[in-house]
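Ticket closed. Logging final result for Xanthine dehydrogenase.
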Amino acid sequence: MSKVVCKTKRIGGGFGGKETRSAFIAAIAAVPSYHLNRPVKLTLDRDIDMMITGQRHSFLGKYKVGFANNGKVLALDLGIFNNAGNSLDLSLAILERAMFHSDNVYEIPNVRVNGRVCFTNFPSNTAFRGFGGPQGMLITENWIQRIAVEVKKRPEEIREINFISDGTLLHYGQLIEHCTLDRLWNELKSSCDWLKAQQEVEQFNLHNRWKKRGVAMIPTKFGISFTTKFMNQAGALVQIYTDGTVLVTHGGVEMGQGLHTKVAQIAASSFNIPLSSVFISETSTDKVPNASPTAASASSDMYGAAVLDACEQIKARMEPITSRHNFSSFSELVNACYMERIDLSAHGFYITPDVGFDWGTGKGSPFRYFTYGAAFAEVEIDTLTGDFHTRRADVYLDLGYSLNPAIDVGQIEGAFVQGLGWVALEELKWGDAAHKWIRPGCLYTCGPGSYKIPSVTDVPFKFHVSLLKGAPNAKAIHSSKAVGEPPFFLASAVFFAIKDAIIAARAEVGCNEWFPLDNPATPERIRMACTDEFTKPFVDSDFHPKLSV
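Final structure:
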């Protein structure tokens, strides 16, 4: 490994698919490169890439929930299964995170969670933004919605009476501290005018037979840290040159998420110099070895802290010179230090403290802290075609004292729209017994013609993103919080708003019982769930379409 230097300037979006599944393509390229002693480049077409490199994991959840007549949850017995495909890859870690997040934000006194990784004849599935967390939380929100049907209340009421708070002990033994969930929820209710929104939707539904609207509010909490303890380490190299400019190298990869910008900001603020004086060239294994994947939303926390550690080391060496003179500029100070033969380069290192989990006892604190969020969505569906559009979405997130609000708001907007694709658009169709028109074992949805990712028309008509004010986080760099993965799940507000609209459509024909709706809520599934005189000759009101996973 010391003889091979890997350099990465930047990559065009990550989201998990490039974390491990590039390795087997690299191995294939390495064989002819070794034998022919010349460079080999291998580039997959989009359709081939989608067919062979795996997808995010599909999950199956089987639950038994005990609850009181008021909707207060008393016990949960949950079995979750994920479709790993033909190799283990990261499937076990993804299952573990789904198990950790299978309570979402709810206090459940008695919990048993059993998880199984399923070996199947599919290409090996892999990491995706959220890493199993959203799947675990979506199962939770489904049974919350089912409780609401049983006790004849709004799901939002069931959510509120089961919220965690400071002092809550989670099912894996971690204590909740500095919980901002109540504040977020109440500010969101106020900003979207929840009661008025409900009333307006009810009025619309009374006067429209074939178009229905629905609303939903969804909370989330996302644990920040790698659940594999040894990966919570980060290194950085900071070098100051005699013209006062600073070169920073760290182990994180820039993929459009703004990591380099945030890390450069931290270095600039530490030395009290302009951001333009700090440069990050590339990520390189000869500068920072043994780096963990740039994943788990933790990179700004870890690499920011490692860079700050290096900066503080250099500042400590400079301090004797600084205390003796008043310098008019940073470059003057640097030159003076250079003349005094002071080392102007430092290696910084950071380990995330107080994290760890023992699978033997099932107890521990796998996360350093939690990022909380909540979202409101209003949708309108056409019950005859299953088409829908998101009329409005309001998103609130607690990001502590954000390192860069512009980047973070962009991350939230992107995560929400990407999550909208997950819950409502992006369906995989494989050749199997339920899809005989596709060649057995082949992926039909392998390109933009058949696999529908969100487009500009899928963005909510009114889209508001807000950050919670006055909630510093003492457990991360400069009181900030991680932003990458937490907002992704909030798009499920659109999914449950669609389900709310379908409930209104079914009420027209006297169907008021609970019904299954799997994600993605595609137009076909929405249409068939809207029971009416056109569907009754073909399917019952509890119709459950066969899935292709």
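The first helix runs from residue 23 to 36. No further action required.
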